[in-house]
Design a protein that fits this description.
The chain has about 425 residues and is α/β, with parallel strands linked by helices. It folds into three domains: about 210 residues, Rossmann fold (3-Layer(aba) Sandwich), CATH 3.40.50; about 100 residues, Ubiquitin-like (UB roll) (Roll), CATH 3.10.20; about 100 residues, de novo design (two linked rop proteins). It contains 19 helices and ten strands. The chain has a four-stranded parallel sheet, sandwiched between helices. The chain has a four-stranded mixed sheet with strand order 8-7-10-9, with no helix packed on it. The protein has a two-stranded antiparallel sheet with strand order 5-6. The protein is globular, with a radius of gyration of 22 Å.
Amino acid sequence: MASLDTPRIVSSRWSLPDSHTLSRYLDSGGYVALRKALTMFPEAVAAEVDAASLLGRGGAGFPAGRKWSMLRRSAISYLVVNGDESEPATFKDHYLVEHDPHQLVEGVIIAAYALQVSQAFIFLRGEFALGLERVQQAVNDAYEYGALGSTIFGSSFSLDIVVHPGAGAYICGEETALIEALEGKRGFPRIKPPFFPAAVGLYGEPTVVNNVETMSNLPWIVNNGGAAFAALGEGRSTGTRLFALAGRVRNPGVYEIEMVKNTFRDLIYDPRLGGGIIDDRAIKAIIPGGVSAPWFTPDLLDVPLGQDEVAAKGSMLGSGSIVVLDDTSCVVRATWRIVKFFSRESCGQCTPCREGSGWLERIMYRLEHGGGRAEDLDLLLDLSDNIAPGLTWPPQQTTICVLGPSIPSSIHSAITLFRDDFVAHVEHGSCPHV
């Protein structure tokens, strides 16, 4: 059974029908953390976040406190919140912006105070229509309440927040492409170095980019202390985390559970969480961290949900998305759809990604639709090796960002683990499981 006796740090208000309103937020302790933070030195607030060992919840898992400490000191600097949640089957930030936007806004103000920046941007995926409406309303309410604008709550600190809708490009989830989009340009990733945002970011100035869930943890950390957060979880993976569970499970949804102390098996099978597999079928594979991640087989169900624990098994927790395939799932079709998505979402800046993703998608298409050849399997792996040499994880870089080298992970996983399924598609011209 999953361990669920830990506090719900970012999802405690989700069961309330008016959780998105200022009145409910204030009634449940909202903006108390901000008032407390404003009585502290900014460095002390940053020290609490550092003590919490809060790993970024956007995918890369870089410690938030360390990222803040890398900010190049300048007369002008910015805070940017990445809410362009674009990874397929990832929908945790979607829940946060819809159900508790004031928690996000308070977290942004606390971070801005710790960093001593006076301008912040919340970049949200354009398709989050309700989320955009509620975050903008939360920002408006915060201004009216005195939590934003000049001399917040009578202090010497002032901050303005701009809510910026994206145009639906997957690549804008990459921090430098997001910054390009904020500047009104096409979302092309920047070369690092020199364009590490903490050194050269928005408008050429030092910039911190953090994820929505990362920001949403800050009010709890300030109220309860970094040590209390670090006491949850284990090792580098402290606190709780939101997991978006999808696929062939009885109860798909977003669940907040303690890191490391729970396993994939707990999340998938606990009746209070995933509830097991539909029709009690057997698990065939798990995609553990968004569709960019290498797949797991059922023998890894007992791997703890921790950053290093999953990495040690050759994959990643990534965006917090876990997709379950059962023995009725067609791995060839799943792989084709993943590759098709990446082919469509490639920004086109780098040749290996722009050209390679299209070639891979065409080969996968003919395998899925009855035109596959026996040599296509090795051809897929050969092309994948050109995009991500060695087909190792983490992948070798041949492009400016990691989109291109992430594409082969599903192909390599599927062919390595389920080659017979691909052979069956070639021999029968269709999926034997359908």
